[in-house]
Amino acid sequence: MRILRNLLRAQRISRKSFSSNRTQLLTYSQLKLTRQFASKPDRKPGNCDTSKENDDNLPTAINMKYKAFHDEDADVILDVSEEMQKISLEEISKQEIHDPYADINLSHGTTGVYDIEDLVALLEGDKANNIFVAKVPKEYAYVDYIVVVTGKSQKHMNALATFVRKVYKQKRYPTDLIPKIEGQNSKDWIALDLGNIALHIFSLSAREHYDLETLWTVGSQYDDKSNKPEELNIMDKYNAFLADLHPADIA
């Protein structure tokens, strides 16, 4: 009887051991189940690269959490100089081309190359300060309008005069003479004779000193500065300055 009991016990142990091994085999078999995946969407299951089979055919439990790494899938890391150059090129491509003549009427005026409204709009767009316009009496046989503005600096004064002249060249007819910038190197007073308009660009101090607004609105007989004995040379200087205004060339 003892021998029979030992045999039965050995049989039960053998069954438990076989059942345990079978469970381990099933677990390992489940881990060995593989799936194919592609890092690129156009890759088809039947056309996978054999060089990647060992990498792609990972156990399912691992493959669901991690992705196989391939060199061609990696991002290119640039060094500092290459990265800065790339950023600079991107910024340049995003910059819009600036048209200096945008919103400017480039058609020839009706009373001259510039109509007074077009010149005032251009000066306002170029940040000229304290724009003053006076209509000149016809008996003076000079120009139709006097325009006086103040520049923020010598550089700004020159920029105003240069841009007015550039636009003039865009608007003019072939027979219209190109004006000369008078006093281009002056820090206080620059002038252009535009045919029907005389443009005066002053520094702040020079504008206060010469006060052309009073001269052209109330007349020299009522201008206190013109009637002072020590300031009698103001009109002489101004008339001499106007006498030198003339077109520079035709081309």
TrEMBL record:
> Tell me, what is one Gene Ontology molecular-function annotation carried by this entry?
ribosomal large subunit binding
Where does it sit, as one GO cellular component term? mitochondrion
- The parts of the chain that form a coiled coil are none
Note the Gene3D superfamilies from the entry: Beta Polymerase, domain 2
Q: Which UniProt keywords apply?
A: Mitochondrion
The entry's localization annotation reads: Mitochondrion
Read off the InterPro entries from this record: Iojap/RsfS/C7orf30, NT_sf
Which domain of life does the UniProt lineage start with? Eukaryota
Q: Which GO terms describe its biological process?
A: negative regulation of ribosome biogenesis; negative regulation of translation
Instruction: Relate the protein's function as given in its record.
Output: Required for normal mitochondrial ribosome function and mitochondrial translation. May play a role in ribosome biogenesis by preventing premature association of the 28S and 39S ribosomal subunits. Interacts with mitochondrial ribosomal protein uL14m (MRPL14), probably blocking formation of intersubunit bridge B8, preventing association of the 28S and 39S ribosomal subunits. Addition to isolated mitochondrial ribosomal subunits partially inhibits translation, probably by interfering with the association of the 28S and 39S ribosomal subunits and the formation of functional ribosomes.
Report the sequence similarity comment from the record.
Answer: Belongs to the Iojap/RsfS family.
HAMAP family registered for this protein in UniProt: Iojap_RsfS
Identify this protein by name: Mitochondrial assembly of ribosomal large subunit protein 1
